[in-house]
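User: Hi! I have a protein structure encoded as tokens and I'd like to know what sequence might fold into it. I'm fairly new to this, so please keep things simple.
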């Protein structure tokens, strides 16, 4: 980590602002209209300055609980979906009214994980966001909780906001939360906790201080924000974690004032296609490779060949995303496989020259071509 390092943000820029449930709702579960009004005014002023703003907003389940006077956490998936269906309409209705007071139009986009798994739908989502911005519309994005099921959820809107920042080629992601930023340990438990103002690289020492949240409304914690930071910085997007209760904090960040924790984008970041491979999909299986293949992939940028595969797990088909593990079981890379799992079992540890005699179809030499391989 680094301290007191100057952050350079282009002006004007494309910015994704993520606001969580805890900021948007009172303890009763009902929407905090005063906070939403201040947020809309600040984001509208950013648009007036020439910035392009995308809002990733939580709060649909919290809003639905408030409208339905439900004072407990929903326990079943159908109940969560029903409450979210009520809350989503209420949430966007209020945003629409608030932004209209400043002459701005909003457009709602509800996404599920499957929208980003499919390459075509990923591109469609990207085109929709970019077209809305071109038309001067503020996209308001949320996970479609009314239809999402657990295995197809993003997990939280921190990760969703980072994916949106990547697919929209944003310059900055600001995650607004209820604390000042990332600390070396939980500031609510330890009075001597120190704020980390600048992070050049997310390593084990950075992750060690983060703890998950246990909140009735919020689904994320500092761990999920670090995961979002990994996605954002590897996509070439700088990211701030900042206190959403701090008046005008987003505007001040864009003016060069330092607040919260800034995560520096990687100099050699992933292309948009490789972002989709790395973060848009859910792995369908995995392969374990030997040390020679590990070195060829990591140090030499080579493709993965069948001779380097020593184990195959899961059931997958041609074109699926699979995880590549080193001999110790650590995830080394992810990529799109050229072989189904049953085929890969037949050809593992075999020379590429033998593949055509084993599999009765035209096949490439590589299990995963380097163009379809993302190394961690």
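Assistant: Happy to help. Inverse folding works backwards from shape to sequence: for each of the 376 positions I chose a residue that suits the local structure. Here it is:
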């Amino acid at each position: 980590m680094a301290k007191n390092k100057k952050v350079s943000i282009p002006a004007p820029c494309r910015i994704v602002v993520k606001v969580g449930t805890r900021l948007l709702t009172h303890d009763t579960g009902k929407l905090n209209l005063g906070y939403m009004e201040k947020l809309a005014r600040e984001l509208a002023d950013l648009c007036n300055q020439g910035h392009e703003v995308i809002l990733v907003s939580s709060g649909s389940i919290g809003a639905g609980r408030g409208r339905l006077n439900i004072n407990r956490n929903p326990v079943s998936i159908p109940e969560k979906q029903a409450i979210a269906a009520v809350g989503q309409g209420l949430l966007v209705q209020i945003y629409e009214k608030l932004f209209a007071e400043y002459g701005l139009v909003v457009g709602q986009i509800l996404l599920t994980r499957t929208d980003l798994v499919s390459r075509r739908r990923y591109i469609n989502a990207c085109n929709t966001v970019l077209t809305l911005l071109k038309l001067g519309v503020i996209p308001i994005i949320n996970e479609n909780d009314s239809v999402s099921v657990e295995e197809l959820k993003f997990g939280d809107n921190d990760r969703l906001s980072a994916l949106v920042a990547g697919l929209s080629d944003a310059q900055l992601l600001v995650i607004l939360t209820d604390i000042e930023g990332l600390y070396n340990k939980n500031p609510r438990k330890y009075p001597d906790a120190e704020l980390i103002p600048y992070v050049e690289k997310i390593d084990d020492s950075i992750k060690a201080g983060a703890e998950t949240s246990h909140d009735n409304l919020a689904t994320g914690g500092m761990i999920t924000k670090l995961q979002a930071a990994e996605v954002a910085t590897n996509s070439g997007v700088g990211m701030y974690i900042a206190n959403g209760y701090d008046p005008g904090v987003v505007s001040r960040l864009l003016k060069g004032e330092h607040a919260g924790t800034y995560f520096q984008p990687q100099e050699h970041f992933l292309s948009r296609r490789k972002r989709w491979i790395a973060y848009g999909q859910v792995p369908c299986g995995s392969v374990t490779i030997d040390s020679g293949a590990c070195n060829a992939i990591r140090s030499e940028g080579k493709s993965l060949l069948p001779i380097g595969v020593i184990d195959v797990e899961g059931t997958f088909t041609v074109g699926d995303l699979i995880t590549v593990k080193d001999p110790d079981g650590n995830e080394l890379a992810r990529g799109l496989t050229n072989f189904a799992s049953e085929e890969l079992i037949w050809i593992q540890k075999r020379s590429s020259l033998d593949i055509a005699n084993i599999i009765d179809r035209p096949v490439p030499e590589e299990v995963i071509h380097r163009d379809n391989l993302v190394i961690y």
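A useful reference point when you look it over: Residues 212-220 have pLDDT under 50 and may be disordered. Feel free to ask if any position seems puzzling.
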